[in-house]
């Protein structure tokens, strides 16, 4: 019986150590280690949004209207599908484009 209690205690201490290491890693965020230039990030977002807006203006009016209507109806997945079918975009890029238009 005492061996089981000792083994259980060691297991609990080990588990607590793992949790402590996980929390330390979580709390040392990349932002603390690698400062990010917020202005540069905003410029990248603006450039990406401008590129997506230009892409929409290059689409046929019916397709563009369908995408905008789907976004207005909160059917984001359907809007992504229409955009991908019309442009051949990848899933991530089409998702980002639709989210920028929301």
Automatic annotation (TrEMBL):
What molecular function does GO assign, one term? structural constituent of ribosome
The Large ribosomal subunit protein bL12 C-terminal domain is annotated at 71-99
Bilayer-spanning residue ranges: 6-24
Q: Which domain of life is it from?
A: Bacteria
InterPro entries noted in UniProt: Ribosomal_bL12_C, Ribosomal_bL12_C/ClpS-like
Enumerate the Gene Ontology biological process terms: translation
The alphabetical list of record keywords is: Membrane, Transmembrane, Transmembrane helix
Q: Does the keyword Cell cycle apply?
A: no
UniProt name for this protein: Large ribosomal subunit protein bL12 C-terminal domain-containing protein
Look up and give the organism this protein is from. Planctopirus hydrillae
